[in-house]
Design goal:
heterodimer, A: alpha/beta, six-stranded mixed β-sheet, B: ABC transporter involved in vitamin B12 uptake, BtuC, binds adenosine-5'-triphosphate, binds magnesium ion
């Protein structure tokens, strides 16, 4: 079943247009990645879904048009957005950040269980549970951002460059955990990356974005073996 | 020694009121980056409402509780109806709105209740404690303020809504992404600030008398307390308010000419502190990333 369908998506920042009619879709339970260079419109695509930017065109989540909703209503539908820059609540503790991730949920027991589950994925967060989140390292903050998103029990996770600014080893660690999350939570993910190599390894489907246009799409396998993609985005 | 203690305790009492106003101001400042200049006039109006209710009910506590509840609701409505529409307007327009609010409340109070001073009885019994160091009213003010501040602190620290309000103030974008309705959190903040201001007004009324300009001095001292303690630290603002109250009282007694220059002295001291600690005694300097 199609969990997310986007058709003819245009996005605008005041006068500047950032997306020029983007189409893509995402099967429930799968991972789709959107690749592209700086300024291609990857973040804008995610911000469009979360209703943080003015758009035209169609965005359907689970068959429902969400373009008329507010950002917080979109979150309440089960779309958890891990934003560019991680969006840490820096003055709140690690655990308070996780509680905020569960803001839309009512059942306290479930929330407490899910906090333990997040700590099981990210034991480092458990060690720092009372620490101010702003004092975490970049990698730990990325883990916290993903953990915060999990606390929503999301049906769809939007991940904006989780590898950004992190050492290769940490990137690998985080991507391994994301693969485990996919397997154990049956989570659907829309993953935006500049790091095409690692994203294509994880994702089922891939789209290539250039200056607001989709220029290529298909199975990750296909893109990985495409000569152009290899030269420009994979570097070999 | 007795005199010194008396001055200090009386200073803590009036400082409690400054602390309430400082906290109200800081709560809104943290969420919006603006000082609500109308905070004092809103508190004054709330106090008049308590007075009017007291004329009808004859019970000061009942009148007080209703006035605080009404102030809470009014704060929410003011945010939704008057402040929210200019949320993204240039800063100058926003300041105009705050000053407009100030004048509206001042004029309304003058119109409804006229500029003659009225008296509002203390919330606390006349002859509760037998001490030469502090009056029952002042002791009640200090203890009651501590209680209110404690409850407020626990609300922000331990409840889900309190956490969401802090998150919405600190990082509105991220707060929206986890499903927090940032607009309503702001409105709630205005409600709380206005309720706390009302508490301050009713506590101070028996000391300063009730008239439309009763809060202008209190607001200045409250601002001073907020600046002294740190405008991004609610706890600091409360401490700052208390300190300003005590310093003011000391200055009145011990500085030659201090009875006239109490306010000047306090302001000089605060400017001095801010020269060395720009973020206030308990605030952090926020370095904005560019
Ligand atoms: N707030 C903004 N105001 C105006 N233009 C913007 C704004 N944010 C992004 N843009 C423009 O929109 C286009 C797409 O930006 P976007 O942030 O979506 O790119 P991106 O693919 O996420 O890039 P990066 O990999 O650098 O994060 C760019 O041309 C950018 O300059
Ligand atoms: Mg981006």
């Amino acid at each position: 079943m199609k969990l997310l369908e986007v058709k003819g998506l245009k996005a605008f920042y005041r006068q500047t247009q950032a997306l020029y009619g983007v189409d893509f879709e995402l099967e429930e339970g799968s991972i789709t990645t959107i690749l592209g260079a700086n300024g291609a419109g990857k973040t804008t695509t995610l911000r469009s879904i979360s209703r943080m930017v003015r758009t035209e065109g169609e965005i359907k989540f689970d068959g429902q048009d969400i373009t008329g909703l507010s950002t917080e209503k979109v979150a309440a539908l089960g779309i958890a957005h891990v934003p560019e820059g991680r969006g840490t609540f820096v003055r709140q503790s690690v655990e308070e950040n996780l509680h905020l991730g569960a803001y839309t949920r009512k059942n306290k027991n479930d929330v407490a269980n899910d906090i333990d589950r997040v700590y099981a994925y990210f034991p480092r967060l458990m060690e720092r549970r009372q620490q101010q989140a702003g004092t975490l390292s970049g990698g730990e903050q990325q883990m916290l951002a993903i953990g915060r998103a999990l606390m929503l029990r999301p049906r769809l996770m939007l991940l904006d460059e989780p590898s950004f600014g992190l050492a290769p080893l940490i990137v690998q660690e985080i991507y391994e955990i994301m693969a485990r999350i996919r397997d154990q939570e049956k989570a659907s993910m829309l993953l935006v990356e500049q790091n095409a190599n690692i994203a294509l390894n994880l994702a089922d489907q891939a789209y290539l974005l250039e200056t607001g246009h989709v220029v290529m799409s298909g199975e990750s396998e296909v893109l990985r073996n495409d000569e152009n993609v290899r030269k420009v985005y994979l570097g070999y | 020694m007795d005199l010194f203690l008396q001055l200090t305790l009386a200073g803590l009492a009036i400082g409690s009121v400054y602390a309430c106003v400082a906290l109200a101001v800081v709560m809104i400042y943290q969420a919006t980056d603006h000082f609500n200049f109308a905070q004092g006039e809103m508190a004054m109006f709330s106090t008049f409402v308590a007075w009017a209710l007291y004329q009808v009910t004859g019970s000061i506590w009942l009148s007080f509780l209703i006035a605080v509840a009404l102030s809470f609701i009014a704060g929410i409505i003011i945010e939704r109806v008057i402040v929210k529409p200019v949320e993204n307007a240039p800063i100058f327009n926003q300041i105009i709105v705050f000053i407009g609010l100030l004048m509206i409340f001042n004029n309304l109070a003058g119109w409804f209740w006229e500029h003659t001073t009225k008296t509002l009885p203390s919330l606390f019994p006349k002859h509760g404690i037998d001490s030469t160091l502090i009056s029952t009213h002042n002791l009640g003010v200090i203890l009651f303020t501590l209680l209110i501040l404690g409850v407020t602190f626990c609300f922000f620290k331990f409840t889900k809504v309190g956490l969401a309000m802090r998150a919405a103030a600190a990082n509105p974008d991220s707060a929206r992404l986890v499903g927090v309705s940032v607009g309503w959190m702001l409105a709630l903040g205005w409600g709380l600030a206005s309720a706390i201001g009302a508490v301050g007004g009713v506590l101070v009324a028996p000391i300063v008398f009730l008239e439309p300009n009763m809060m202008s001095g209190v607001l200045l001292y409250g601002f001073a307390g907020a600046l002294l303690g740190g405008v991004n630290s609610p706890g600091g603002a409360v401490a700052g308010g208390l300190m300003v109250g005590v310093l003011e009282n000391w200055a009145r007694q011990y500085v030659p000419g201090g009875s006239e220059l109490g306010l000047t002295f306090a302001l000089i001291l605060i400017v001095g502190v801010l020269m060395f600690k720009p973020a206030g005694l308990f605030g952090r300097v926020i370095i904005k990333r560019v």
